[in-house]
From TrEMBL, chain A:
GO function terms (MF aspect): oxidoreductase activity, acting on the aldehyde or oxo group of donors, iron-sulfur protein as acceptor; thiamine pyrophosphate binding
Keyword Hydrolase belongs to the record: no
Record protein name field: 2-oxoacid:ferredoxin oxidoreductase subunit beta
The organism's taxonomic lineage, starting at the top: Bacteria, Bacillati, Bacillota, Clostridia, Thermoanaerobacterales
GO biological process, one term: cellular respiration
Entry keyword set: Oxidoreductase
Automatic annotation (TrEMBL), chain B:
InterPro entries, A to Z: 4Fe4S_Fe-S-bd, 4Fe4S_Fe_S_CS, Fe-S_Ferredoxin
Pfam families per record: Fer4_7 (PF12838)
Protein name stated in the entry: 2-oxoglutarate ferredoxin oxidoreductase subunit delta
GO molecular function term, any single one: 4 iron, 4 sulfur cluster binding
Source organism: Caldanaerobacter subterraneus
Gene3D superfamilies associated with the record: 3.30.70.20
4Fe-4S ferredoxin-type domain segment(s): 3-32, 33-62
Keywords: 4Fe-4S, Iron, Iron-sulfur, Metal-binding
TrEMBL record, chain C:
Organism: Caldanaerobacter subterraneus subsp. yonseiensis KB-1
Residues of the signal peptide: none
Gene3D superfamilies: Pyruvate-ferredoxin oxidoreductase, PFOR, domain III
Enzyme class of the recorded protein, top EC level: oxidoreductase
Entry-linked SUPFAM superfamilies: Pyruvate-ferredoxin oxidoreductase, PFOR, domain III (SSF53323)
Protein name as catalogued: 2-oxoglutarate ferredoxin oxidoreductase subunit gamma
Annotated EC: 1.2.7.3
GO MF assignments: 2-oxoglutarate synthase activity
InterPro entries membership: 2-oxoglutarate_synth_KorC, PorC_KorC, Pyrv/ketoisovalerate_OxRed_cat, Pyrv_flavodox_OxRed_cen
Keywords tagged on the record: Oxidoreductase
TrEMBL record, chain D:
EC number from the UniProt entry: 1.2.7.3
InterPro entries in alphabetical order: PFOR_II (IPR033412), Pyruvate:ferred/Flavod_OxRd (IPR050722), Pyrv_Fd/Flavodoxin_OxRdtase_N (IPR002880), THDP-binding (IPR029061), Transketo_C/PFOR_II (IPR009014)
BP GO terms, sorted: response to oxidative stress
Domain Pyruvate flavodoxin/ferredoxin oxidoreductase pyrimidine binding intervals: 14-241
Primary enzyme class: oxidoreductase
UniProt keyword list: Oxidoreductase
Pfam family, one: POR_N
Every Pyruvate:ferredoxin oxidoreductase core domain range: 273-366
UniProt keyword annotation of Ion transport present: no
Name this protein carries in UniProt: 2-oxoglutarate ferredoxin oxidoreductase subunit alpha
Length: 274, 72, 185, 378
């Protein structure tokens, strides 16, 4: 036996998961499951699509319709699934390498279309599956196997990118603030349109060791101590926010949703043909 | 309503997250696995389950006399 | 089995590909078999443009024009590029703005196609339809009725009258006394 | 429908809709763009979906997703886009998702000559994606056949749960011909069957033709689809025995059913001097060349594979011994030639006639090249 959530929503024969000890991917995956459970969505109608990387392995453990695709392309596959059958609830599980580097183009265009897909990006600043290379979200001057002297790249704020590309629900949570993360994911799934939730995660094995971040618990504590709620952040000066993680809801707006717009066009055409 | 803390040893990787975030410090890592030191002091808050990356520790909720499922 | 090859040459934007399609569809309405192909430069307008049509009584195996029986050239460059390919027994139709060789082995006729489109019909862009009128009148490769039907099926809604007039003006231009026409038929 | 003038690209769309295609995702590229444009125009009226994606990688991904969600799906492209699609074509092969990819070939490599024809993607269509797999590739040589071949592409993709490539070329894609599609009469359309017993459904078990019926997402069977090596449930595994069984099944389901899959056409003499082998638009030039050579007293036969991959080798083995010389004519530097040479194990029997400059073969050129090659006898 396992917990009710595991019994109900996981493929038990695939557990234990392959993630390293202390990896927060399991925490975020369970947060997604809690959100689906809270919303009481029929699991036959849920499709979880993932790309390639550590976090993308989550789809295999989950007892939904699951699609583990190619590197960076999860959102493009998900677009096909959702557009073909808009009744399905489509959730994309992706990572910072999968989504912000190789998958960046699909990400911005899905946001632009405002197609009703919820993307949860596990951001651990590193490519874990391939052994710790720098991702587009690695903090500047932090180290990775491909940035042995510290990364000189500027790091990417993916929430800002999502907002710029037209996503209609954008939020950031962390693997420490689990209750809040569950709520943000719930709201993202309920939201009609393209929803993006960035889940700040920890990779104790590659990112943590190389950058001397301590134990998994230390890394979660760091998330706790360095996260600032968006409402509080609004009252703070830029220099006070330097190096901090702003968490909460950035955008929650209504806009025409892609699959509905297509259906409306079809209805209009039917009328005009008659 | 009765709650019981359950540990799935096979799934536990001994990362120690639950130990650190237990508000009453009743968990420890022994031989690479988590262990409940003192059941009486456990307040069944569920924070360990919330942050366990391996789904290896959880509160089992048993139905009470009225038959209300407290899990939902 | 008789088979006629027609090449329409000019510049991009003159509507020659559409003209080729219309000619091919008119032939089908006449109960014949036709194919149409085209080539164009990368530019949608202004580059060179070529459309080809083969009209036959039976199946057409090789779908491209090798030796045109009829060449239409609306520009000098089209004339220069394609005149050598035309069969000796064929016909070259050019716009009167095109300077033609005096010593041409192939029968060559000049018509004010572009001018008629611009000044008589009133729109430069119907030169393609004027051309079709000229070709049909001269060669009888398609019937006038079928050609008119094909034109009206393909031109944009709202331009039917304009194109009908363009076709008529083309027919008028093409009414010339010439032995070649009898040979062709 | 009766007799109409139809473009090759248009015939593909007509065939696809007839076959039940209700999802198209694509990205504009010459000389295939008319396919996307016509799908955008027509699909809303038949209950279908059209989406213009951000690139060809996404287009290929979207049709796989749509197919898993239950719609017959297609994309179309040309060389550069076909290159971009390769990884996800491999995913469709590995995850066994039915879909149809049209490659209207143009002159390459790279950007090449976008408006001019070529047949340089023969090997790419077979081996373009990495790893061992089999694939079905069909090549029509007329507008009418483009319609028929597209319907069969969907049928084969459903029957064998595989991506099917329609290898067209600029000549057939842009050519308009007089066609009467009614002449085909009723064509059988293969639909997806949902099995009675979905309780014990295994998406990757060999039930029939090497595959299990594909139950779309959302129908109550929750299974996993992955590009990783997987067991019958679809779950990833590193078990080398399972891997071997899987790859063998993926290859065998096509190679062992070759006789059901292959289509070809034979014309001219059954034995004689010259056997021409060509496909797609080039076979139109070859047919015209054959007429010329016949007039000059040569005995000429034509073998035209419509299914390029798997190659119809069983049939070719029966035919070729009766000819003295075999010429493979293609608009490339020699690709199908190697496959023919593999089948015909006779020293010096197979020669290639090639052209790779964006020009369509004229019958005359072929005749001249043949005469040049045989001037010192066969």
């Amino acid at each position: 036996m396992a917990s009710r959530l595991v019994e109900e929503y996981f493929r038990k024969e695939t557990l234990p998961n392959i993630w390293c000890p202390g990896c927060s991917n399991g925490i975020v995956t369970m947060a997604i499951v809690r959100a689906i459970d809270n919303l009481k969505i029929d699991k036959d109608k849920v499709v979880v699509v993932s790309g390639i990387g550590c976090s993308s392995r989550a789809s295999g453990y989950l007892d939904f319709n699951t699609l583990h695709t190619t590197h960076g392309r999860a959102i493009a596959f998900a677009t096909g699934v959702k557009f073909a059958n808009p009744e399905l609830t489509v959730i994309v599980i992706t990572g910072d390498g999968d989504n912000a580097a190789i998958g960046g183009n699909h990400f911005i265009h899905a946001a632009r279309r405002n197609i009703d897909i919820t993307v949860v990006m596990y951001n651990n600043h590193i490519y874990g599956m391939t052994g710790g290379q720098a991702s587009p979200t690695i903090p500047r001057y932090d180290k990775a196997t491909t940035a042995p002297y510290g990364s000189i790249d500027r790091d990417f704020d993916i929430c800002k990118l999502a907002i710029g590309a037209g996503a209609t629900y954008v939020a950031r949570g962390t693997a420490y603030h689990v209750q809040q993360l569950v709520k943000l994911i719930e709201k993202g799934i309920s939201h009609k349109g393209f929803s993006f939730i960035e889940a700040m995660s920890i990779c104790p094995t590659y990112y943590g060791r190389r950058n001397k971040k301590g134990s998994p618990a230390d890394m979660l504590k760091w998330l706790k101590d360095n996260s600032i709620d968006i409402n509080k952040a609004a009252k703070m000066k830029p220099e006070e926010l330097e190096g901090k993680i702003i968490i909460g809801e950035f955008v929650n707006i209504e806009a025409p949703e892609y699959t509905e717009e297509y259906q409306k066009m079809v209805e209009r055409l039917k009328v005009s043909v008659k | 309503m009765e709650k019981k803390l359950v540990i799935i040893e096979d799934w536990c990787k001994g990362c120690g997250i639950c130990v650190e975030f237990c508000p009453v410090r009743v968990l420890e890592i022994k031989d690479g696995k988590v262990r409940l030191i003192d059941e009486d002091r456990c307040i069944k808050c569920g924070l360990c389950e919330m942050r366990c990356p391996d789904f290896a520790i959880y509160l089992e909720v048993k139905k009470d006399v009225e038959g209300v499922n407290a899990g939902k | 089995m008789r088979s006629l090859e027609i090449r329409l040459g000019g510049s991009g934007g003159q509507g020659l590909i559409l003209a080729g399609i219309i000619l091919a569809e008119a032939a089908i309405l006449d109960g014949k078999v036709s194919v149409q192909s085209q080539s164009y430069g990368p530019e949608a307008r202004g580059g060179s443009s070529k459309a080809e049509v083969i009209i036959s009584d039976g199946p057409i195996v090789y779908p491209k024009v090798l030796k045109p029986d009829v060449l239409l050239a609306l520009t000098s460059s089209a004339y220069k590029s394609y005149k050598e390919d035309v069969k000796e027994t064929g016909l070259i139709i050019v716009d009167d703005s095109v300077e033609v060789e005096k010593e041409s082995k192939v029968k060559t006729l000049k018509f004010p196609i572009l001018k008629t489109a611009q000044e008589v019909v009133g729109k430069a862009y119907v030169a393609n339809i004027v051309s079709l009128g000229v070709i049909a009148e001269l060669t009888k490769i398609v019937s006038e009725e079928s050609l008119e039907k094909a034109v009206l099926k393909r031109v944009p809604a709202g331009t039917e009258e304009l194109n009908r007039k363009a076709l008529e003006e083309g027919f008028k231009l093409g009414k010339v006394e010439d032995k070649w026409v009898e040979q062709m038929i | 429908m009766s007799r109409v003038l139809m473009q090759g690209n248009e015939a593909v769309v007509e065939g696809a809709i007839r076959a039940g295609m209700r999802f198209y995702a694509g990205y504009p590229i010459t000389p295939s763009t008319e396919i996307a444009e016509l799908c955008a125009e027509k699909l809303p009226f038949v209950g279908g979906k059209f989406i213009q994606m951000e690139d060809e990688i996404a287009s290929m991904a979207a049709i796989i997703g749509a197919s898993l969600a239950g719609l017959k799906a297609m994309t179309a492209t040309s060389g550069p886009g076909f290159s971009l699609m390769q990884e996800n074509i491999g995913f469709a092969a590995m995850a066994e998702v039915p879909c149809v990819v049209v490659d209207v070939q143009r002159m390459g490599p790279s950007t090449g000559m976008p408006t001019l024809p070529a047949q340089g993607d023969v090997m790419q269509s077979r081996w373009g994606t990495h790893g061992d797999h089999s694939i079905i590739v069909l090549s029509p040589s007329s507008v009418k056949e483009a319609y028929y071949v597209t319907i069969q592409a969907f049928n084969l993709s459903e029957k064998y749960r595989t991506p099917v490539v329609i290898l067209m070329d600029e000549v057939i894609g842009h050519l308009r011909e007089t066609v009467n599609l009614d002449e085909y009469g009723d064509i059988e359309i293969i639909e997806r069957k949902i099995p009675e017993d979905i309780e014990n459904y295994l998406p990757y078990k060999d039930i029939e033709n090497g595959v299990a019926p594909l139950i779309p997402f959302g129908k109550g069977v929750r299974y996993h689809v992955t590009g990783l090596v997987h067991n019958e449930k679809g779950l990833p595994t590193n078990d080398t025995k399972i891997a071997e069984r899987l790859i063998k099944r993926l290859v065998d389901k096509i190679e062992k059913n070759k006789e059901d899959i292959v289509m070809y056409e034979e014309k001219g003499e059954k034995e004689g001097d010259i056997l021409f082998i060509s496909f797609g638009s080039t076979s139109r030039s070859v047919e015209a060349a054959e007429e010329e050579l016949k007039k000059e007293g040569f005995k000429v036969g034509i073998f035209r594979p419509i299914t390029i991959w798997p190659f119809p080798d069983t049939r070719l083995r029966k035919i070729y011994p009766k000819f003295r010389k075999i010429f493979v004519v293609e608009m490339n530097r020699g690709q199908l030639y190697y496959e023919v040479d593999r089948v015909v194990k006779r020293e010096g029997a197979v020669e290639n006639i090639n052209k790779a400059n964006g020009e369509f073969f004229t019958p005359c050129e072929i005749v001249e090249k043949v005469k040049e090659r045989i001037k010192n006898g066969f």
